[in-house]
Specification:
Elements (H helix, E strand, L loop, with lengths): L1 H40 L7 H22 L7 H20 L13 H10 L2 H18 L14 H32 L1
Length: about 190
């Protein structure tokens, strides 16, 4: 009886989770615009604004589609929610690629879609998201548009710092995936 009750509430939960994701993405889009504006105006950072603007525009378009979707009557599936989260990971990866890769302090934001996945979706989805975010972070260690940030003088120490951030992210991703998924399953 408990399983059938949970199954009956699954579409409502997926709908609520997609609605939360819509609001989180709206906040993220605004935050990205503010951070990019601050980087350019306050810190005098040269950024590829056209490319970054295009990515943020695509995120906004996805969010408009999500808003339209939420107004419909078709139930939201876990797969649909997962695909929405994948779109967010792709956008974050692209923005990080254009702004320093793994040396960008916002790289830890990869933990947000992983945490959402671990709390809202299945263990299979969680481990897929953990693998994807680790792969994206890892790729950004080698493939990125570098920024002039004055670390050239102590590049060896900075490289060790970036390597430590990467190792920390992997440990955090595995802990979140295993702990939150286990906790969610027991609830």
């Amino acid at each position: 009886l408990r399983c059938s009750h949970a199954a009956m509430n699954a579409p409502a939960n997926a709908y609520s989770n997609l609605k939360r994701l819509f609001f989180l993405r709206s906040i993220a889009i605004g935050g990205q615009v503010l951070v990019i504006a601050a980087a350019v105006t306050i810190f005098d950072t040269l950024l590829p604004l056209a490319a970054m603007g295009a990515i943020i525009f695509l995120q906004a378009a996805v969010n408009v589609r999500t808003w339209t979707r939420l107004r419909g009557t078709t139930p939201v599936s876990d797969t649909e929610l997962f695909l929405e989260l994948l779109a967010d990971v792709a956008a974050l990866t692209a923005l990080l690629y254009l702004s320093g890769g793994s040396s960008n302090p916002f790289v830890s934001l990869f933990l947000l879609p992983l945490t959402i996945t671990a709390t809202a979706l299945t263990t299979r989805h969680t481990w897929a998201m953990a693998g994807l975010t680790i792969a994206c972070y890892s790729a950004l260690m080698f493939f990125y548009r570098p920024l002039g940030h004055g670390h050239e003088m102590h590049s060896s120490a900075f490289n060790q710092h970036v390597l430590g951030m990467w190792a920390n992210f992997q440990v955090s991703a595995v802990l979140i995936a295993s702990f939150v998924a286990t906790m969610s399953a027991s609830i």
